[in-house]
Amino acid sequence: MLGRRGAVRQSVLAQELGQAPRSVTQSVEALEREGLVERTADPHDGRSRLVRLAPEGAKALAAGTAAGEQVLREVFGPMGAEQLGNLDQLLDALRAGLSGGA
């Protein structure tokens, strides 16, 4: 989310992730200790903190994204259009079954 949206309030981050604010605070503190995110005061609300990716966090995100894309290419690359279409239909059926729809 930080990679897409840039700096966001911790409260927004918690809401978007569907997590308790305290849990997000603990996670952000740990990521900050690792140098992956930075926290600053919100210039519009001094009580709030903005969280943004640190340069090292942006590098880690890029590396993780590239690795994930490589895995997807290795797994799904050999499949033809028909096989991918069949897989898409099966996944739609699974989603419908899990959500209770038919």
From TrEMBL:
Please give the biological process terms from Gene Ontology that the record holds: response to stress
Molecular function GO terms recorded: DNA-binding transcription factor activity
PROSITE patterns attached to this UniProt entry: HTH_MARR_2 (PS50995)
TM segment ranges: none
* HTH marR-type domain ranges (all copies): 1-96
Q: What InterPro entries is this protein classified in?
A: HTH_MarR-typ (IPR000835), MarR/SlyA-like (IPR039422), WH-like_DNA-bd_sf (IPR036388), WH_DNA-bd_sf (IPR036390)
Q: What is this protein called?
A: MarR family transcriptional regulator
Write down the species: Streptomyces olivochromogenes
> Highest lineage ranks of the organism?
Bacteria, Bacillati, Actinomycetota, Actinomycetes, Kitasatosporales
